Amino acid sequence: MTAQLIDGNALSRHLRADVSARVTALKSRGITPGLAVILVGDNPASQVYVRNKVKACEDTGMHSVLERWPATMSEAELLARVDALNRDSSIHGILVQLPLPGHIDAQKVIEAISPAKDVDGFHIASAGALMTGMPGFWPCTPYGCMKMLESIGYELKGRHAVVIGRSNIVGKPMALMLLQQNATVTICHSGTQNLKAMTLQADVIVAAVGKRNVLTADMVKPGAVVLDVGMNRNDEGKLCGDVDFEGVKEVASWITPVPGGVGPMTITMLMVNTLESAERLAG
Ligand SMILES: Nc1nc(=O)c2c([nH]1)NC[C@@H]1CN(c3ccc(C(=O)N[C@@H](CCC(=O)O)C(=O)O)cc3)C=[N+]21
């Protein structure tokens, strides 16, 4: 058996068409959704991601502002920029690209973003809203994973979902979203004793570690659904995920590729969050 692909590019096209239509409707009421992206320093990977985000905005008819600052920018200067964007009525979403240079306290910067414009969903107010089921922005990567499961009509109720990784950006919010859909959720991490024993019990596996071959075919129950959040480079410099795709696709029922899986969905959900921020403001 070979798994079916959950195509993040195709699903993104579909969802972005809906975003475009809603952007057009908002524009007819005199509001153009606007996203501000702040990039500090010249991390080459960040340059690519940030360009993709700005391009996605343009494609859906949104307004976007890209601010590039030197790595030597002070924390106070960055906080002042965030404050200015908080008060800028043409901006509905603010994204400060991570990682930030070491002399800047990233959490402090995130908490300076108005929760109403926190389209990354990283602010503690957004995290608290997700945890309690209150309205708020969901982090784009796990939100995109949920949309991928929805796209295949997957019913999570009563299923066992295993999340590998416990970051604030992916692992923890992913677990909460799966829980909200009534899955039984296990979070595995670097301290987990027997990872394989856990993943073999899983109906859904989300790999979000940032390391190649974290999940191999022998660790997957036949028919499981596998979502690969990893964004790594292999020895030939090719983009690859956390999952041994070639092996696991022979065991799983559905699998997301890298590239063309969760990555484009992350950007799509950023568009959705920015649009919804503008819609909320419009009433
Ligand atoms: N404040 C903040 N918010 C983020 O959302 C954020 C961030 N910082 N820092 C970095 C990570 C990484 N990230 C990606 C998004 C899309 C792709 C993506 O579109 N990947 C393409 C391939 C891109 C390529 O060719 O390199 C794919 O998987 O098909 C990748 C990575 C967002 N991040």
Task: Describe this protein with a few key phrases.
single chain, 10 helices, NAD(P)-bd_dom_sf, Rossmann fold, histidine biosynthesis, multifunctional enzyme, globular, binds 5,10-Methenyltetrahydrofolate, six-stranded parallel β-sheet
Distance between the termini: 49 Å
Proportion of beta-strand residues? 15-25%
Molecular shape: globular
The low-confidence parts are none
Q: What proportion of the residues is helical, as a percent range?
A: 40-55%
Alpha plus pi helix count: 10
Structural class: alpha/beta
CATH class category of the largest domain: Alpha Beta
**CATH topology-level fold name of the largest domain:** Rossmann fold
For this structure, what is the CATH homologous superfamily of the largest domain? NAD(P)-binding Rossmann-like Domain
Question: Radius of gyration over alpha carbons?
Answer: 19 Å
- Hetero groups bound? 5,10-Methenyltetrahydrofolate
Summarize the structure.
The chain is α/β, with parallel strands linked by helices and 283 residues long. The protein has two domains: 86 residues, 3-Layer(aba) Sandwich (Rossmann fold), CATH 3.40.50.10860; 124 residues, NAD(P)-binding Rossmann-like Domain (Rossmann fold). The chain is built from ten helices and eleven strands.
